[in-house]
Write a structure and sequence with these properties.
- It is found in: Nucleus.
- By secondary structure, the protein is α/β, with parallel strands linked by helices.
- The chain folds into two domains: 131 residues, Response regulator (Rossmann fold); 50 residues, no CATH class.
- The chain has seven helices and seven strands; from the N terminus they run E-H-E-E-E-H-H-H-E-H-E-H-H-E.
- Strands 2-1-5-6-7 form a five-stranded mixed beta sheet, with helices on both faces. Strands 3-4 form a two-stranded antiparallel ribbon.
- The protein is globular and about 50 Å long.
- The relative contact order is 0.18.
- The mean pLDDT is 95.
């Protein structure tokens, strides 16, 4: 008899800072096999004004970003929640990673995005990759506002969705429509999904 293989999950937002990391942290603590990514060209964080964001390259360690913001204005970045968020991120992984550069990280069973623009980028990227194995990957979008409170709510919903999916095991392709309808009804959240291949 075949031993049940754990599913691999990817959490994806724009900068791999807030929503994807909150979900990565919660899913990891729950024992799920999870990674997280961003799809932007750079990592962008709020700055002193709308026109002065803090911009970093993907791969810049969270601890370096934390030290930089603490040096610039510790009161502002503590007040707006960036310093506590970055402290959490350092306990999850080293640095923000870009989805489009992740092919070497292997295959995922499900990719969850937190905004439609990110979903479109991930779907395009998957469809533009060379398909060799024809293993399916489920890509789901659940819109979550990019603030600390909503990221916490989104992470709990992400955990619930991933656990339901893992519970469906290898049958997920047969039950995905019902699973999504039930989830939407239970949580009053609209989901969009796409299937791609590795």
């Amino acid at each position: 008899m075949e031993v049940n293989r754990k599913m691999r999950f990817a959490m994806v937002c724009s900068s791999n800072m807030n929503r994807s990391m909150e979900a990565h942290s919660l899913l990891g603590r729950a024992g799920l096999d999870v990674q997280s990514y961003g799809t932007g060209t750079h990592v962008k964080l709020p700055g002193p004004s709308l026109h002065e964001p803090n911009v970093y390259d993907f791969g810049t360690p969270y601890s370096v970003i934390y030290d930089d913001l603490r040096r610039k204005d510790p009161d502002l970045y503590k007040r707006n929640g960036l310093l506590p968020m970055l402290k959490r991120n350092t306990s999850v992984k080293l640095a923000p990673q870009r989805w489009q550069d992740n092919a070497a990280d292997g295959m995922f069973d499900m990719i969850l995005t937190f905004e439609e623009r990110v979903f479109d980028l991930v779907v395009d990227d998957m469809h533009n990759r060379e398909q060799r194995l024809f293993d399916t990957v489920l890509i789901i979008n659940m819109d979550v506002k990019d603030n600390h409170e909503e990221a916490g709510v989104g992470a709990k919903l992400a955990l619930d969705l991933c656990q339901k999916l893992e519970g469906a095991d290898d049958e997920w392709e047969e039950v995905i429509d019902d699973l999504i309808v039930a989830f939407e009804k239970q949580h009053k959240r609209k989901l969009v999904y796409n299937i791609a291949f590795y």
